[in-house]
Design brief:
The structure is a homodimer of 130-residue chains.
Chain A: H1 2-18, H2 22-26, E1 29-38, E2 41-44, H3 46-59, E3 64-76, E4 79-93, E5 96-110, E6 116-122
Parallel strand pairs in A: 1-6
Antiparallel strand pairs in A: 1-2, 3-4, 4-5, 5-6
């Protein structure tokens, strides 16, 4: 099952975020990927997405840890929808502890080289409607 | 903006559901589309999706009305993620009134003919994780 591939890919992407290895992280995104930085603010393309992750890392004083606790993957052809319970934690958000749970929505696309890449990264899920 | 196209397309699809015009409705889906019939039960491809809609229409004694109250669309290249507040109501569900709200997640793909078609129809959204 390709779903297992996607779970591993997302796990590897979380690892890259947690290590602040943004060179590796950018390999998980398509060239025209969109990241929802926060509701109403989108980063589009690898350069903007990288800058957003750098800003987020700074905001959390380089202590952010992201992990997906649960995941459901619906896949057909070269498209996959991932619904995930994402856990974010940081021990140094401006000197206070921080932990939150988000219901995230990701869309992946299998590119012509056979690699799944994230095209839409919406860690806010349905919070966008609020 | 193509987002407006998608809003109209989804409105037209809801109209087809409400009219039980399943010939028209199937035009909104890609050949390999997946419909989440309920958590754990998927319909794949137009033939299965059509049978699922016919069963749903029967279940509600042909009184189901679907409408999207709010919608957020994130679109890049030939892929779009739609997060919607869907309202379902029926006045004859086995002789009782019925109304519910769902936070739905749809993925659309622009096909080579330039038409957006639904590839993943998950009206349960993050309920899949429960």
């Amino acid at each position: 099952m390709q779903s297992h591939d996607l779970k591993q890919i997302i796990k590897n992407a979380d690892h890259a975020i947690n290590q602040e290895n943004f060179d590796d992280l950018m390999n998980f995104y398509s060239e025209d990927a969109i990241l929802v930085v926060k509701p109403g603010m989108l980063a589009k393309g690898k350069a903007e997405i990288r800058r957003a992750f750098e800003a987020i890392a700074n905001y959390f004083n380089h202590s952010l840890i992201v992990n997906q606790e649960k995941m459901e993957i619906i896949e057909t052809g070269d498209t996959a929808l991932v619904i995930a319970k994402a856990i974010l934690s940081a021990n140094q958000k401006k000197d206070s502890e921080f932990s939150m749970e988000r219901t995230a929505t990701y869309v992946f696309k299998k590119e012509v080289d056979g690699t799944w890449r994230c095209v839409i990264d919406n860690s806010y899920g349905a919070e966008l409607l609020q």
